[in-house]
Amino acid sequence: xxxxxxxxxxxxxxxxxxxxxxxxxxxxxxxxxxxxxxxxxxxxxxxxxxxxxxxxxxxxxxxxxxxxxxxxxxxxxxxxxxxxxxxxxxxxxxxxxxxxxxxxxxxxxxxxxxxxxxxxxxxxxxxx
Length: 128
Prior knowledge:
Layout: E1 2-8, E2 23-24, E3 27-28, H1 29-38, E4 45-50, H2 55-64, E5 70-75, H3 80-90, E6 97-102, H4 110-123
Parallel strand pairs: 1-4, 1-6, 4-5
Antiparallel strand pairs: 2-3
C-alpha cells in the first residue's frame, strides 16, 4: 500500500494570508494538491495534516469533493518535520511507501507522482 501525507499545517505567517485557500483557476490550492493524489492510481490512501482549527473544515471539504482515498485528516504541529511525523503515524499499518507532499504546491500531477513512486520503489527514495 502506498500512502500520501499532504502537509498543510502552516500558518502562512510570512504571506500574511492563508495561501492554501487561495484559488488557482477557481480551485483552492490545497484542494488542487489533494486532487492530484486522489487521481493518481499509484496512491492508495491520503492523510492530510493541517492546523488543529482546520481539521473539521478540511475533512468536510474532502468529503464534499469526493476524495475517496482519504484515510484521515489530522492536526499538525508547530514545525513541519513534526507535522510530517503526525501524518506518518496516522498512515494505515499496511503502508509500505509514503509520498510526502507540501499542500501549498498545487502544480503536482498524477503522472509526476507516479514517476516519483516508481523511482522510490527502485532506489528506496525519490524526490520531485
